[in-house]
Amino acid sequence: MTASPIPDPDTTSRRPGAGRELWRRLSGRAARVFAGLHHTWRRSLQVRVVTITLVVSSLLVGGFAYLIAGKITSILLDNAKTDVRLRLTSGAEYAAKQFSLYSQPQEAQLQETIDGTVNYLAGGDPQQTSGVVVALTADGVGGMILPRSSPAVDFRPLISPELRAAVAGGNVANQIQTGRLTGERDTKYLVYGSPVPTRFGQVELYYFVPLTLQDSTASQARATVLATGLALVLLLGLLAALVTRLVVTPVRVAARTAQRLSAGLLDQRMAVNGEDDLALLAASFNQMATNLQRQILRLEEMSRLQRRFTSDVSHELRTPLTTVRMAADLIFAERDGFEPSVARSAELLQAELDRFEELLTDLLEISRFDAGFAVLDAEPTDLVPVVHRVVDRLSGLAERVGVEIELDVPAAPVIAEIDPRRVERVLRNLVGNAVEHGEGRPVRITLGMDDTAVAVTVRDHGVGLKPGEEKLVFNRFWRADPSRARQTGGTGLGLSISLEDARLHGGWLEAWGAPGQGAQFRLTLPARAGDRLITSPLRLVPADATVSFGATSTESMLAIGPGPDGALTVGPANPVPEQRAEVAS
Amino acid sequence: MRRRLLSGALGVTLVLAGAVGCGIPDRSEVQTEQRGPAAEASWSLGRGSEPPAREASGSDAEAFVRNFLAAAAGEPDRAYDRVKQYIAVAERGGLQVKQGSEVALSVVRLTDDPVIEPDVDSMKVTISVQQVGLLRANGMLVPPLATETTYEFRLINAGPAGQDDAGFYVSGPPNVLLLSDEALRLYYQAESIYFWNSERTRLVPDQRYLSSAVPAERRVSEVVRWLTAGPSDWLRVGVSGLPDRTEMINNATGSDGRWEVNLDMPGADDVRLEQFATQLAWSLLELDGILEIKILNQSRKLVDLGEQRASNQLYQLDDSSARRFCVYEGAIHALAVANESIGRVPVAAEANHDVLSAGLRRAGSDVLAALVVSDGAGQRLRVGRGRDVVESFMTGPAHTVIGRPVWLRTDSDQPAGLVVADGELYRFDDRGAMRPVQLGLPGRVDAVAASLDGHRIALIVGGALHVAAISWEGGVPTIGPARRLATSLNRLTAVDWWAESRMLVAGAAGRPAIYDVSVDGALETRLRDDAGAEVTHLAAHPATPTSPLAATFMYEANGVTYRNNPFERIVREQVQEVTAPPTGVRPGNPTAPVFLY
């Protein structure tokens, strides 16, 4: 912090901002680091195992180190205490013997004897002591005896009042104290005191034994334990890393192989090394892959055969059909000359042959799609004439069943890169279906576009679709009501082919329906061929549809948006992914 | 990786925290373990007497002076304190106090009663003294330094005026600590301690004074301290002390027949220790029991004091073998005294004539005889050696007067003796050769006597008593520096040792008298106040520390021989193997008495 006496307004005003900035950066960095760590933690089994091993082993080793170091220290201390106690006991005995010669504290030579005794107990030569200080005090003898120590030092501060009281009370007592007696530095001393009974009163004998050696031994032991523990922890971590690596690497290889396998590279296999569990895994994996590959190939072959069969059958049927057709046309042309019943049969034959031909055409188309031979022949096309053309062609049928076809087409051309033949087929199919199932009510065709996509919706007000039928309608040969199966025309392949056409364009073909409310189909195509669709310019669920939560799929979301005349409309969300029958991607 | 580092750091921290948490604490609680040793039943071997306090004498001025002269007796550290109690309060600071080993008491012998003269408000005291010696703190009585013969001080009344029984104070005291010989006798015990001679063959006694105030428990300590301090100065030529730098570590401790001495004795081998043990056993004559000698805390030797004394006798003496002889009509004859055994004359009959005096000694189974005979040319010394009876003698040169010869009791094969001839001291050997001995003292040598240990002699030089030590160099005795002793006798004529540290001295205290004098001259006992005439011969059979018999002596005064126990004259009838003189002839008297031992 700046210690400037005059506060600088600039810095003060700027500092909190700078601080916040710094804090923000730091916290951001920390959050990033944490996120990275979290990511690593989630991603890597090895990191998790190693971390857990390190933490647990640290705790264990730490606990053991604590116990061992504590034990060593207490053993050292106990030994020191035992030694000093022995010395003190014999010292007190010796002193008692020496002082037994005196019966009065003021007696001659007593002080001399005290000096001699402490010198003797301290080892005789004060120059050669090992730092041990021996002291005698006689506080209870009326101050006639001076306290003495060998070597002569000021030992009083090291005798705490509690210890003094304990010893004066006739007890052998000890205490660890830190102070300075002989050396330059503060030293830990084991202070041991014992009363010495004499005939002139009680004298107290104290030993001050430096614990330097014990201290250094204890710290050495601690350091050793610490180093060993650390090495052990690191070793365990290394071991865990190694073992995990041994296990994880094959698993990763297996995962990669499985990924490749699932990506279609069916001949990918794992290397099998040795005979252990991982080798077993690899072998099993390889076996599974082999079995899968065999099964998939078999299924592919079967599918291919089936498609081929369909195609072949269609082709093979066409030739006799052509002959039959020519004969039937002849008979049909001559039907006026037949009996009415025969003429009726000829008409029926002609109609069924038409349907048969249609069916064969559809089957061939489908088989082309299945075989992957369908090719998009895209060109920029105005959709408006296409729609008009479809309506025109179906107007006859519409008039026959009494359905009015309404068109909502923009005035401007709606240009998109499409295959007009296929789009027209799709629209013809959709409008035809709508007219057929319209039950006499009007069918509305809406064309819409935006920057990226064009869409056509076909709305009818027939019986509608039951929940779940939105997807089923695109199935081959699916019928909503099997009872009226063959009454109306259609091969049952129309919507399937339409869906394949939409998919070929990279577009969507979706259905919406509700019982009693009719149905709406929507074709959405990208404006430029090959673009990816994101949204559709038109809604799938018509605006006039009654919102019925029970009726719509429970998973569908509600969409709240602007309705006509500025009112809010609430309806199923658009697009509803579940109701999007197929998404070409 | 970071995670690993982090957990590693965490582990290290944990371990570190754990390890650091359990070192030796800087300070701990007081841990009380057990009751310490309790005081044992107080035991003491008792304390000796101490000099009386100042008030003890009441208003008796003479007793006060006597007590004052005893005040310093006791332990030396507090001698000044005790004396100060006697001195007037205002003058106590005037006494120059010395410390430790500097403390010394001037031992004086009152030559007369104190003269106490009443004055205006005090009494003037004059004491006439003879300086006897200086009693040092270590119990040694060394020759006096002071030469004063009188001391004067005043007595002032301690109480308020008119009250007499409050006692006195000394005013104007002498600036020394005075101790009368009487107080020395009362409040000190003379102790013999022993040192080995230079050859380490014999123990030589030395005398120390132990204050009666010293409790018996400290006796051993005191004796060992004396031993480590070495012998008295005058003895140093003949004896050897303990090895240099030998010191006692603290006090000797013990009780109930078991003692312990801890020494720092350089070069202490088994021989030295054995010798030290013997030295100690004899120096602690009153003690029995076990004494443990430790050298630097290592127990080295257990000594049974009684056994050690029994197996290391001080002197090769057989009390029952002592025999009395005398010279009767120029020949040596045995004496029959009371019911003592009568000895056989150790001189062959053919040599036993013209004898004036004799010195006899037993050396193992041999007898050594030194005779002073007179012939026409004067007096000669005849020396011989023989088994039981000496038959052949060697004759020395002629002198005018030869005193009584004295054999030195050594263990060597070459016997030697001392004799005074014509006022000079000579040494002689077993061939009768006499060689003068230089004493370095002015005056005429009158008498010589040798102690039992053969390392100390007493001399009368110029009428004063001296003692000296003998060192043996190649079998030849050399006399060390003589120490003059102060006795109350004068005109000394004869001397002989009659105990380890006591001598018989004949002289005059007004009248001829025989005194028992200690080896330092401090202690005197009057044995014979009136010997009737000047004592010319004095012969004693010494008492050893262990002998049950009292010492005996005989002396000759005015041609008549006397003995002690009881004092009586030895008459002619007691002389053996003499024929009664013819009637009418006055029979001679036995003279020059001598003991053979």
From TrEMBL, chain A:
Pfam families: HAMP, HATPase_c, HisKA. It catalyses: ATP + protein L-histidine = ADP + protein N-phospho-L-histidine. The keyword Lipoprotein does not apply. It is an enzyme of class 2 (transferase). Residues 312-529 form the Histidine kinase domain. Signal peptide: none annotated. InterPro entries: HAMP_dom, HATPase_C_sf, HATPase_dom, His_kinase_dom, HisK_dim/P_dom, HisK_dim/P_sf, MtrAB_MtrB, Sig_transdc_His_kin-like_C. The chain crosses the membrane at residues 49-69, 223-243. It comes from the Bacteria. GO terms for molecular function: kinase activity. It is found in: Cell membrane. Residues 564-585 are annotated as: Disordered. Keywords: ATP-binding, Cell membrane, Kinase, Membrane, Nucleotide-binding, Phosphoprotein, Transferase, Transmembrane, Transmembrane helix, Two-component regulatory system. SUPFAM superfamilies: ATPase domain of HSP90 chaperone/DNA topoisomerase II/histidine kinase, HAMP domain-like, Homodimeric domain of signal transducing histidine kinase. Residues 245-297 form the HAMP domain. It is a multi-pass membrane protein. Its EC number is 2.7.13.3. PANTHER family: HYBRID SIGNAL TRANSDUCTION HISTIDINE KINASE C, TWO-COMPONENT HISTIDINE KINASE. NCBIfam families: MtrAB_MtrB. This is Sensor histidine kinase MtrB.
TrEMBL record, chain B:
It comes from the Bacteria. Gene3D superfamilies: TolB, C-terminal domain. SMART domains: Germane (SM00909). Residues 220-306 form the GerMN domain. Residues 28-58 are annotated as: Disordered. Signal peptide: none annotated. This is GerMN domain-containing protein. It comes from Micromonospora gifhornensis.
